[in-house]
Amino acid sequence: MIVNKHRPLRPANYVPADLVQPRVALAVSGEAAQLNRTTAAAAERMFAAAAADGVTMTLASGYRSYATQTVTYNGWVSSQGRAAADTASARPGYSEHQTGWSFDIGDGGGACSFQPCFAEQPAAVWAKANAHRFGFVVRYPWMQHAITGYFYESWHLRYIGVAAATDMRKRGIATLEQYFGLAAAPGYR
């Protein structure tokens, strides 16, 4: 399931049938502390490996329902305008968070949370170097916004499986659009 600005969820109010709360350090509660079962199991392994390496990693935002994404997106529109919102937040029905396959990480202390400087924090550095071993990719990589439609989000991880994530890394492929031969989706149609 690839969701981007050209590939909305169908139905728009899609809800994964197997949402669970992973046994990881949480910076959120409620629906945002949930992932689909497969992603949750992989996240548990990844967070444990990070901790074993002395890196604190928290689940900062997991599943978002259509209703939650509506509130989130409308908040961006209200404060920044529609054009800016479209580069910072997915429209309702277009969010990877709604799939249960994606989540945002934090560092447990709030350093640079959801800001460009998070890329330099230990949790983001560790994830960029190691997430593929657990089936994750940084979904919105540096300087790929013309393809993904979003500026760099070092905190946003997407589960695609160990084989695919490792293959992407070995081949130097940055985006899921490129890996799966999909058209770039820099803006909504």
Describe this structure in a few short sentences:
With 189 residues, the protein is an alpha+beta fold. 34% of the residues lie in helices and 13% in strands.
Question: What does this protein look like?
Answer:
It comes from Arthrobacter globiformis (strain ATCC 8010 / DSM 20124 / JCM 1332 / NBRC 12137 / NCIMB 8907 / NRRL B-2979 / 168). With 189 residues, the chain is an alpha+beta fold. The protein has one domain (19-179): Muramoyl-pentapeptide Carboxypeptidase, domain 2 (2-Layer Sandwich). It has 7 helices and 6 strands; from the N terminus they run ββαβααβαβαβαα. It has helices at residues 37-52, 66-80, 82-88, 122-130, 145-148, 162-171, 176-179; strands at residues 19-20, 35-36, 58-61, 102-106, 136-140, 153-159. The chain is globular, with a radius of gyration of 15 Å. It starts with 18 loop residues before the first strand and ends in a 10-residue tail after the last helix.
List keywords for this structure.
189 residues, two-stranded antiparallel sheet, 7 helices, alpha+beta, 4-stranded antiparallel beta sheet, globular, Muramoyl-pentapeptide Carboxypeptidase, domain 2, single chain
Rg value: 15 Å
What string, H for helix and E for strand, traces the elements in order? EEHEHHEHEHEHH
Compute the separation of the termini in Å. Answer: 19 Å
- Total beta strand runs: 6
| Residues in β-strands, percent | 5-15%
Shape: globular
Protein name: Putative D-alanyl-D-alanine carboxypeptidase
Keywords: Carboxypeptidase, Hydrolase, Protease
GO biological process, one term: proteolysis
Pfam families: VanY
